[in-house]
Specification:
There is one protein chain. By secondary structure, the chain is mainly β. The protein has 3 domains: about 5-165, 3-Layer(aba) Sandwich (Protein Transport Mog1p, Chain A), CATH 3.40.1000; about 190-370, no CATH class; about 455-745, Porin (Beta Barrel). The protein has 11 helices and 34 strands. It has a 17-stranded mixed sheet. A 6-stranded antiparallel sheet has the order 1-2-6-5-4-3. Helix 7 crosses helix 8 (about 250-260).
């Protein structure tokens, strides 16, 4: 046993129960009498497990209890005698037995009819004699039997290393009587569009926070149903379906159709029904009509004859759902053969790939379509550009891009307007933007191109080069959201500009390799790894404030904040950056690590190397959420102002003025707990509790003291499916600092 369990978990040891309490859910108390105290004991809750690993099958585990004893006085055989009697009395099954290991499993209660659907275990109990130690291990959850062995072999992911468990073969339960063949369940068909809104809808739909289970007698398309699971990200949706089950018809299809027709269409969700023998899962959420599931006319099966409950098509941009559905219904019933036949049956498909995702005996075939290039490939799109800040004033211009479409079918080869037909498509193209600042009376431009090579849903390599004369912001990773619509509106209405600007003039070249790995369940959530090499050859200059104008300062009688100077000069640098991103629907991890080097050997006026690690994590807690960030930066030599580690103000140290602290090295810690007060439809109102802390140092300082600065605050946050508005009030621990206020149209990090 590796006793170097995660430090965070050990710190929480004293606050957690260390012995299991008796209950019918797969928990066996460690209560053998007349034995010495364990030398190590721990209780892993679901929350603690998720801090270390969130992947399948650990996400099916509720609790893990472990005790470790010195192997003295024949304690192993005493445990075997005591616990085997207890386990067998509670109907646990002996799954493995040898001279050093006993493993028992508790089957989820089943009947003969639904044995296949409920092929899962509520508990695993292991007694292991290993070297000079004896282990008692109790795992409680709802673990698919096929994944139980993987769970035991992967316990090292949370610091439990018991070699004997890794050598155990596949686990099995006593075979029941063969059930009678029931009515075949239909296979559902659904399209998944690849767009920002579709991705957000899918992630919200399948990242459900509320769940209810019901036992009873219903029918679904003529098939008897005895167990229904309701899942949704909105408790109101769960309540509506639950009430319908209690008071409505016994036919599930009629019940859901009635809910959709008798309720305000703006409030009632669409439903995805996943059947599995006598069990169905109803997932309620908002989705477009084009992604609404429909029933196929035949039942599809795996190569082994197991039913496919749902077929999901992704990757298509201009192939109609009816075309794909018709091709599937005319093809073979075996899913592998049906997929192989699709490229010949669907003219727009170049090739297809598929995988089968199985969750709680519900099988989903996910088909990825790689479409042939559209007939009208070459395009030119133009759009007006509008910006405003205290340096350029109003900036008006135009942006244009021209290239070859990869996936999207467009109506014409040339478009111009605020909404570009190619928006959001990452393809090979030439681009340009030209604008003019009406306050500083200076032109700004950006000209370049991007080339893309990729394998969809697998990897992508990109090369981007551009020549620009443009305003840029300092610390873009900490102070982002420059010139998006929300922050532009804030500046127009007099909210203090939280950015500092400088002028970049020169060439930037970027090489990027990105790997995309699907995440379970349903392969809709993705894990992205991005590696970038960024080369700069440009000059940097300071920009002066040129205007104080906003809507409530029409005559510019009051003054806004000055734009500080930077360190001017020729910048020649190379940066290597790695991003790890699992975010979906605002939750998950996003970690960034980079190193940047500038050297006079490249023609630079600067000579330094800087490093930064930026860790961000957001975790849902039911209706609430906790968000945390840690940033650490250092350098080998004094940095120019535009590359310094800065903090203070919105999203960093909220209780201090903007950019209050700057230096060559430092750290920053932010924590936010967002407590939902109430929700209405797709909107919610929440309170945010904020804690910030950090410190910066300069390499020129002779003595560096540990003297961190901190602040606390509270905010009121209004959130919809796509927008966030937050008003914060914060106060620094430093008594000399006054109370600070800020507005945000985005999460702090």
């Amino acid at each position: 046993m590796k006793e170097n369990i995660f430090i965070l978990l050990l710190l929480l040891l004293t606050t957690l129960p260390l012995a299991a309490a008796e209950s019918p859910n797969g928990t066996i108390p460690f209560d053998c009498p007349d034995v010495p105290n364990p030398k190590f004991q721990f209780h892993f809750t679901r929350e603690l497990i998720s801090l270390a690993v969130t992947t399948f099958p650990f996400n099916t585990v509720e609790n893990i209890y472990i005790h470790i004893y010195d192997d003295k006085a024949d304690i192993f055989h005493k445990f075997v005698q005591y616990y085997v009697e207890t386990l067998e009395a509670e109907n646990w099954h002996n799954s493995h037995e040898d001279s050093t290991t006993r493993l028992y499993i508790l089957e989820r209660p089943t009947t003969v009819e639904n044995q296949q659907a409920d092929n899962a275990v509520l508990g695993l109990f292991a007694l292991v004699q290993s070297d000079n130690d004896v282990y008692l291990l109790n795992i409680v959850g709802n673990v698919p039997l096929r994944q139980a062995r993987k769970l035991l072999t992967d316990l090292g992911d949370i610091g439990i290393d018991i070699p004997e468990l890794k050598s155990i073969g596949e686990l099995s339960l006593p075979k029941p009587e063969e059930p009678s063949a029931g009515m075949p369940l239909p296979t559902l068909f659904r399209m998944r569009k690849d767009s920002a809104s579709a991705n957000k809808t899918d992630s919200a739909l399948f990242s459900t926070s509320f769940e209810e289970n019901h036992q009873g007698h219903w029918t679904y398309r003529g098939h008897p149903i005895e167990r229904i699971q309701i899942r949704s990200s909105d408790i109101k949706h769960v309540t509506v379906v639950s009430s319908g089950l209690k008071n409505g018809p016994e036919d599930i299809t009629g019940l859901l159709d009635g809910l959709s027709s008798n309720t305000d269409s703006r409030e009632i969700p669409k439903f995805i029904v996943l059947p599995s023998e006598k069990t169905i899962t109803i997932t309620a959420g908002n989705m477009s009509d084009e992604t609404q599931p429909t029933t196929l006319t035949k039942v599809f099966q795996t190569g082994d004859g197991d039913p496919i409950h749902e077929i999901v098509i992704r990757g298509n941009q201009y192939t109609e759902a009816n075309t794909v559905r018709a091709a599937l219904e005319k093809g073979p019933a075996k899913i592998g053969a049906a997929v192989d036949a699709l490229p010949d049956a669907v003219p727009t498909f170049e090739r297809v790939e598929f995988l089968i995702e199985e969750v709680d005996s519900q099988r989903t075939a996910i088909i990825t379509a790689i479409e042939k290039p559209p007939a009208l490939r070459f395009y030119t799109d133009g759009a007006p550009h509008l910006g405003s800040n205290r340096v350029t004033g109003w900036e008006l211009g135009v942006g244009i891009e021209s290239g070859f479409r990869v996936r999207k079918e467009h109506s014409s080869a040339f478009t111009f307007g605020f909404s570009s037909e190619s928006a959001g498509e990452d393809n090979s193209k030439l681009f340009g933007q030209m604008g003019y600042g009406f306050s500083d009376k200076q032109p700004y431009y950006r000209l370049g191109g991007r080339a893309i090579w990729e394998e969809p849903y697998s990897w992508q390599f990109g090369l981007t080069a551009q020549f620009q004369r443009a305003t840029s912001i300092t610390a873009p990773d900490l102070f982002s959201h420059y010139n998006d619509t929300a922050t532009l509106l804030l500046r127009m209405f007099g909210v203090p500009d939280h950015q500092d600007y400088y002028l970049r003039h020169g060439v930037e070249v970027e090489l990027e390799w990105k790997a995309v790995f699907p995440m379970r369940p349903l392969q809709f959530l993705r894990l992205d790894h991005s590696f970038k090499l960024i080369l700069l050859a440009e000059s940097h200059d300071s920009l002066q404030k040129s205007t104080d104008w906003h809507l409530f300062n029409w005559g510019s009688k009051s003054e806004v904040r000055e734009n500080p100077l930077i360190t001017p000069g020729q910048m020649r640098s190379a940066m290597f950056r790695y991003d790890f991103d699992t975010r979906n629907n605002y939750f998950g991890s996003h970690h960034t690590f980079f190193v940047e080097h500038s050297n006079p050997a490249f023609g630079s006026d600067f000579n330094w190397t800087r490093f930064q690690a930026h860790l961000r994590y957001a975790y849902p807690l039911g209706d609430h959420q906790i968000r945390a960030r840690a940033v650490v930066g250092s350098a080998t030599a004094p940095l120019p102002i535009q590359r310094q580690f800065v903090m203070g103000g919105i999203g960093t140290l909220n209780g201090y003025p903007l950019y209050a602290f700057a230096g060559d090295a430092g750290f920053l810690l932010n924590t936010e707990f967002i407590y939902q007060l109430f929700s209405f439809g797709n909107q919610s109102l929440a309170a945010a509790f904020i804690f910030d802390g950090g410190q910066v140092w300069n390499l020129s300082e002779n003595q560096r003291r540990f003297d961190p600065k901190g602040s606390v605050g509270i905010g009121l946050q209004f959130e919809t499916d796509v927008d966030i508005f937050r008003f914060n009030v914060a106060k620094a621990f430093d008594a000399e600092q006054e109370v600070r206020y800020n507005f945000m149209f985005f999460y702090s990090f």
